[in-house]
Amino acid sequence: MNFKKIKIPFAIVVLTIGIVIGILIQKAFSDDNLQDSILKFKDVLAYTEKYYVDKVDTQKLVDAAINGMLNKLDPHTVYIPAKQLETIEESFKGEFDGIGIEFQILNDTLTVVAPIMGGPSAALGILSGDRIIKINNKSAIAISNEQVRNKLRGPAGTKVEVTVLRNGIKNPINYEITRSKIPLYSVDTHFMYDNTTGYISISRFAETTYDELNNALIDLKNHGMKQLILDLRGNPGGYLNQAVKIANLFIGDNKKIVYTKGRRKEFDEEYDASKPAPYKDLPLIILVNDGSASASEIVTGAMQDWDRALIVGETTFGKGLVQRQFSLPDNSALRLTIARYYTPSGRLIQRDYKKIKSKEEYFEDAGKNNDALGNNLEHTAEKDSALPEFKTHDGRIVYGGGGITPDFIVKDGKLTDFTTELLKNNIFYQFVLNYLDYHKNEIVNKYGNNLNKFIRNFEFTNNDLTDFLNLAKQKGIKANKENFEKDKKYITTRLKAEVARSLWHNEGWYQILLRDDDQFKKAVTLFGEAKELAGLK
What we know:
This protein folds into 4 domains: about 10-70, no CATH class; about 95-185, PDZ domain (Pdz3 Domain, Roll), CATH 2.30.42.10; about 185-325 and about 335-410, Alpha-Beta Complex (2-enoyl-CoA Hydratase, Chain A, domain 1); about 415-520, no CATH class. The longest helix has 26 residues, at about 490-515. Residues about 5-30 have low confidence and may be disordered. The chain has 18 helices and 22 strands. It has helices at about 10-25, 30-50, 60-70, 80-95, 120-125, 145-150, 210-220, 240-245, 295-305, 360-365, 415-425, 425-445, 450-455, 460-475, 480-485, 490-515, 520-525, 525-535, and strands at about 80, 95-100, 100-105, 110-115, 130-135, 140, 160-165, 175-180, 180-185, 185-190, 195-200, 225-230, 255-260, 270, 285-290, 310-315, 320-325, 335-340, 375, 390, 395-400, 410. Helix 7 (about 210-220) links the parallel strand 11 (about 195-200) and strand 12 (about 225-230). The two termini are about 30 Å apart.
């Protein structure tokens, strides 16, 4: 089972729409048609603003009009309001200015889930489970997520004071934190699973992903890595150039990695491996699922087409469209599809979206297939489909137009509705937070820094699990004994992983979850097939 409004004058509104439409068509249509369309929109907006029965918010109307227009294109062409754009871009830049904590608001209290390693909060000794009750001597009780970001983030070098309640400490603790650059890592974790097998999980393809991955590979190699599992499950993609550079770590000899084709020739590009591949002889297995999209599929598709890696898991999302971001005058942006990308064999992996009624349906439809389980090296699981056929370097048949189907299909175990509700309502973390208030010192004294000892020996008692179910009941989730027993292994594993994350961060989280992860456990047994496929035997 797998566990990974800014108001502006009317004239500027009209000018903005003109610019947007101008960018979209780039004079592909006649000036007369373009001007007619602009004038029509201007008239409708002007009549509405002047005569509508209630006062209208012009900016909201413009945003709605843009979204309505884009909905007639493809699911990945989107308009991004200015407020959202900053957050989105930040997640791909690899850093932000702040105090460096992961947080949640539980029962109106700002709670530290974990200090970010390398940040000022971690350096000062702020701990997982700390409750921040004041910010700059003002109460932080009932604070919102947006207020937290506004109060705790700020330019590097500036200071903020926080007051913390910590279990076991009688009096509140005051910290003066100097904000700094906080790294946002896209390589969630890397470690040696056993004496020869390295494991790396990548959550997205950001500006720093290649450097992070390269450093992780060097570290694992220094610790004896002879084979690697690269986990791209749930990775929605990101920067294409990062995907190309990462594929180039494993594919050399000037081999094609991906190419793009658009309506306009300037968007036709080809990306080949341009450097020697330092890990071209490393046995490699890539884990994917229906959350693996875009740049994840570029890497996976190249590896599969060159028979370089064994792909394990479930069919990927199926996003084969390339977007370019155009900045708009009010700091919002248009992310417009300008091309399609193709794997080395010529596969377009984009799923058909023209028959889908809505974007919601399109995204929900990902992964809904009946691929047979098990060995799929010859890709017979897709044989009866109407998808176009292509061939890998060694002549294996693969299919386009529907994501990337793995070479070995392993389904993610499905959870009951009971456990789904537990996850949706954050019961696992809430329970562990309370549990650690009473047992953290005991755990630290018993296991110290020995994660492996904790993995081997720590277990929750029956009384602990009863307390967990009682908490769920208090939160309005009715306990279902049958479903609890069905998901008991997952529930106890996840609870244990939550404890490990508070003490050993992501390494503890992943090392425990992977031990009950059907896809990962199967992948570990398939390195013989991975070596044979890549010609490494």
